[in-house]
Amino acid sequence: MKFTHLLAAAVCAIPLAGAAHAEKNYHGFKPETVDALNEKLQTPLTESALEVLSHSTEIEPCGGTQAITMNPPDGWEARLETSHAAGGDQVLPVPTTGLTLEYPAVYQLLGVEGACEAMFDITAGGKTENIQTSCSLPGFDEAAANVFAPLEFEPAEGQDSPAIDNVLVPVNFCRSDEETAAP
């Protein structure tokens, strides 16, 4: 094949490549945000991943309309049967410091919300252990677990020890009103 034929084929392919790029479905996410993220991510976001994530931009636990499905880990259901929910009948130990919630960066940039439940035990020494999370999307689980890992607890009034198993606490990752108003 002559060089001119190769050049002609390459020139003809340029508009097709542009058309393929233009047809990429960003599922409502800002193309410039997705493209910038994909340049930095080790595994770029695919169209199918964006489709899944697009169903978590206004979730019910954050005041939106999108229903969620939790993804519990192995052993979750057995522990859930004996859990003690925050705000329930069981008086729970008191944390000695405030909670620190770190939103997963990629989800925050995309405006993806998440809902989790964290379950953990509190030792007699006030430390957390056996932390498990059940979340609406992968990636929120580690962030939810990190909220409780460094916490220490003291006994509630009238208790001798902070020790208790299977404390269940909801953890929601919601966008602020300013973020939800932005296009």
Automatic annotation (TrEMBL):
Domain of life according to the entry: Bacteria
Name of the protein described by the UniProt record: TonB C-terminal domain-containing protein
This chain's source organism reads Hyphomonas adhaerens
Stretch forming the signal peptide: 1-22
| A Pfam family hit | TonB_C
Domain TonB C-terminal spans what residues? 101-173
Q: Name one GO biological process term.
A: transmembrane transport
Q: Which InterPro entries match?
A: TonB_C
Task: Could you list this entry's UniProt keywords, alphabetically sorted.
Answer: Signal
